[in-house]
């Protein structure tokens, strides 16, 4: 208890989210804990009442009638009540759980932003398929479906025999579920990918893996979903939405599924910005296809690199400039004294 702040205690330890879905889950958790505490108090009260008022008193001998308190075994109305009450409690909890689950998993047909997520060992690629701009125009960024290994040249072993490509040499076309967009951000070993998203807009994510099972997890979303290869063959729902991100800021993202040697380094960052900044960001990247994501972030006066997580190697730096404490404020990612769109 001493490790909790007042706000955390009021949430009964539930993390603070940044989406309406996360808030719905918090309400469910809070009232579930309250219901559990009420039941606990009743059970504790009955227990202490029993051991306090039905214990052996004194040292004298008791008659047979005084040996045990009045028994209520085979009291049909009482036993029916004891059976019915748990069923009512479970039914109420089940009802509200389904309501919240349906809200969290709801998908509407008019998301303002559609993001393609591709997970691979051991990083992330983010692409913008469609964006509804503030001026009413719609940006269409989808390029093609395809395989990440299409441009990989065949390899040969020492005997001159061709070595099969990934997927055990199966036809690369089997990976035509992967999306390629005109505007993409790809993480590397030296740079954490930053996924820029607008606040106050419905956003849809479609995710897929190029190799093994990964998991897309942003703790502040209070939501995670496994990123599967071959989603159709695996009968998985690889689309999900958030109705909005409630505030600007930087939020760390992680792979939450053990996916191999460098799983722990497979991090990313969600950078939530105002709608105006986001539209400027998309316009800049569309007009400057060779510009880096860092340059586009600087153009909207945002810190150009991740401030919530770091590439693994930079943590070993001895110059003191790449530690998490000196990388920036996750709640204020704007560059002071900067003019949005100055580079356009």
UniProtKB/TrEMBL annotation:
Q: Which UniProt keywords apply?
A: Copper, Electron transport, Membrane, Metal-binding, Translocase, Transmembrane, Transmembrane helix, Transport
Question: Where does it live in the cell?
Answer: Membrane
Q: Which GO terms describe its cellular component?
A: membrane
**What kind of membrane protein is this, topologically?**
Multi-pass membrane protein
List all Basic and acidic residues biased stretches.
Answer: 152-161
Select a single GO molecular function from the record's annotations and give it. cytochrome-c oxidase activity
* Record EC number: 7.1.1.9
InterPro entries, per database record: CcO_II, CcO_II-like_C, Copper_CuA, Cupredoxin, Cyt_c_oxidase_su2_TM_sf
Q: What are the TM regions of this chain, as residue ranges?
A: 28-51, 80-100
Catalyzes what?
4 Fe(II)-[cytochrome c] + O2 + 8 H(+)(in) = 4 Fe(III)-[cytochrome c] + 2 H2O + 4 H(+)(out)
Region (Disordered) residue spans: 145-166, 309-344
GO BP field: ATP synthesis coupled electron transport
- Which superkingdom? Bacteria
Q: Name one Pfam family in it.
A: COX2
Question: Residue ranges under compositional bias (Polar residues)?
Answer: 319-344
Task: Name all Cytochrome oxidase subunit II copper A binding domain ranges.
Answer: 110-284
Q: What class of enzyme is it?
A: translocase
Q: Does the keyword Transmembrane helix apply?
A: yes
> What family does the entry list?
Belongs to the cytochrome c oxidase subunit 2 family.
Q: What does this protein do?
A: Subunits I and II form the functional core of the enzyme complex. Electrons originating in cytochrome c are transferred via heme a and Cu(A) to the binuclear center formed by heme a3 and Cu(B).
Protein's UniProt name: cytochrome-c oxidase
Lineage, highest ranks first: Bacteria, Bacillati, Actinomycetota, Actinomycetes, Mycobacteriales
């Amino acid at each position: 208890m001493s490790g909790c702040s007042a706000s955390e205690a009021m949430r009964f330890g539930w993390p603070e989210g940044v989406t309406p879905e996360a808030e719905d889950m918090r309400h469910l958790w809070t009232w579930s804990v309250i219901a559990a505490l009420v039941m606990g108090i009743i059970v504790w009260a009955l227990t202490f009442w029993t051991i306090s008022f039905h214990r052996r008193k004194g040292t004298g001998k008791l008659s047979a009638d005084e040996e045990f308190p009045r028994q209520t075994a085979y009291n049909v109305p009482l036993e029916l009540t004891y059976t019915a009450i748990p069923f009512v409690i479970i039914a109420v909890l089940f009802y509200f759980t389904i309501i919240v689950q349906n809200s969290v998993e709801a998908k509407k047909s008019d998301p303002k932003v559609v993001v393609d997520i591709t997970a691979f060992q051991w990083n992330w690629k983010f692409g913008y398929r469609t964006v509804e701009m503030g001026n009413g125009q719609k940006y269409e960024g989808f390029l093609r479906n395809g395989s990440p290994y299409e441009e990989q040249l065949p390899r040969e072993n020492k005997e001159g025999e061709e070595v099969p490509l990934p997927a055990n040499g199966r036809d690369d076309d089997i990976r035509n579920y992967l999306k390629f967009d005109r505007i993409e951000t790809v993480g590397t070993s030296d740079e954490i990918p930053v996924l820029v998203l607008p606040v106050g807009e419905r956003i849809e994510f479609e995710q897929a893996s190029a190799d093994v099972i990964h998991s897309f997890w942003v703790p502040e979303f209070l939501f995670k979903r496994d990123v599967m290869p071959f989603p159709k063959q695996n009968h998985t729902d690889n689309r999900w939405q958030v109705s909005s991100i409630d505030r600007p800021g930087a939020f760390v993202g992680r792979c939450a599924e053990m996916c191999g040697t460098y799983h722990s380094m497979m991090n990313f960052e969600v950078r939530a910005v105002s709608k105006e900044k986001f539209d400027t960001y998309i316009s800049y990247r569309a007009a400057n296809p060779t510009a880096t994501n860092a340059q586009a972030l600087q153009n909207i006066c945002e810190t150009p690199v991740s401030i919530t997580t770091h590439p693994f190697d930079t943590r070993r730096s001895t110059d003191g400039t790449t530690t998490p404490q000196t990388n920036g404020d996750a709640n204020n990612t704007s560059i002071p004294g900067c003019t949005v769109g100055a580079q356009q």
